[in-house]
Amino acid sequence: MTTSSSGTPSLAGIRGPIVLVGVGKMGGAMLEGWLSLGLDPKSVIAFEPQPTPELKALEKRGLRLNPVAAAAGADAAALVLAVKPQAAAGVVIGLKLFAGSGTVVLSIMAGTTLQFLEREFVFSSVVRAMPNTPAAIGRGMTVAVPSKKVTPPQRQLVDALLSATGAVEWIDNESFMDAVTAVSGSGPAYVFLLAETLAKAGVAAGLPPELAMKLARETVAGAGELLKRSPLDPATLRQNVTSPGGTTAAALEVLMAPDGLEPLMQKAVAAATRRSKELAG
Ligand SMILES: NC(=O)c1ccc[n+]([C@@H]2O[C@H](COP(=O)([O-])OP(=O)(O)OC[C@H]3O[C@@H](n4cnc5c(N)ncnc54)[C@H](OP(=O)(O)O)[C@@H]3O)[C@@H](O)[C@H]2O)c1
């Protein structure tokens, strides 16, 4: 069973503390989203060895930055792990003070399993999630899988925290996470590659490189936005711009040939799924 979150959440009522560990690209995007949804900076404890000036400025609004854990340590409402997976083993030791029986531990670390998280945070509930980079502009796609201990209010809290950076989908089957990583986690790179190759093809067809890049960039972005806003599925949108015997049909005949984009994309996603499994060990 999968469920999507709905509606725009508010974080204004959360008293926290929300402990955020790692305020890099992803952690930073999440924090920005939370604050824009009304979370009081006083509810946030952040750990980050190289804080940006923006993060330091939040101290004036009450955010606690790199406090001595023993002094700040109280059961967190949520403990959010946003460091690189390689740093996971090192950081969890110092964080146990924050993880009580009422705490939900939310990890966005690629390949870090529920089993690892449950072993490290024995008293707490845990959620494993996989976001993607459009989270930086509030347009991410995150897939989350909860451990059995997660209570409905904890799930609501995590849903609200994740929805601050875009869409959220909940799954029950953790084994989907490798394919999820291959589709939505790594997916933005495939779309950027599409823009790159479309621009190169434009140059090969005689366009000046700058013009070709502008056309490719705006076309990919505009088509993405249309797909986002339209109730129609991608196949219908494609058919709607394809007149029989026209220019689009000529290109699609190549792209949709038996050895065209579909088998290539399947091979690519299968390779990423395999790699995700290997990295998780
Ligand atoms: N970016 C993506 O597309 C994406 C997608 C899905 C999942 N993820 C996951 O998101 C996590 C974060 O990725 P990211 O791209 O945001 O990486 P990032 O920009 O490198 O952020 C990680 C941050 O954690 C900090 N950090 C390292 N050790 C720490 C410690 N002991 N305590 C507190 N903070 C510490 C790092 O500081 P230093 O720079 O000083 O080390 C860095 O600022 C990763 O686990 C990744 O698998 C990322």
Question: What is the name of the CATH topology of the largest domain?
Answer: Rossmann fold
Q: What is the global morphology? A: elongated
Give the bound compounds.
Answer: NADP nicotinamide-adenine-dinucleotide phosphate
Q: Specify the structural class.
A: alpha/beta
Distance between the termini: 26 Å
CATH architecture field of the largest domain: 3-Layer(aba) Sandwich
The largest pleated sheet is described as: 9 strands, mixed
Q: Which percent range describes the beta-strand content? A: 5-15%
Topology:
Layout: E1 2-4, E2 18-21, H1 25-36, E3 44-47, H2 53-57, E4 64-65, H3 69-72, E5 78-81, H4 88-95, E6 104-107, H5 114-120, E7 125-130, E8 140-146, H6 152-163, E9 166-171, H7 177-185, H8 187-204, H9 209-229, H10 234-240, H11 247-255, H12 261-280
Parallel strand pairs: 2-3, 2-5, 3-4, 5-6, 6-7, 8-9
Antiparallel strand pairs: 1-9, 7-8
Helix pairs in contact: 7-12, 8-9
This protein binds NADP nicotinamide-adenine-dinucleotide phosphate (NAP).
NADP nicotinamide-adenine-dinucleotide phosphate binds near residues 48 and 132.
In brief:
The chain is an alpha/beta fold and 281 residues long. The chain has helices at 25-36, 53-57, 69-72, 88-95, 114-120, 152-163, 177-185, 187-204, 209-229, 234-240, 247-255, 261-280, and strands at residues 2-4, 18-21, 44-47, 64-65, 78-81, 104-107, 125-130, 140-146, 166-171.
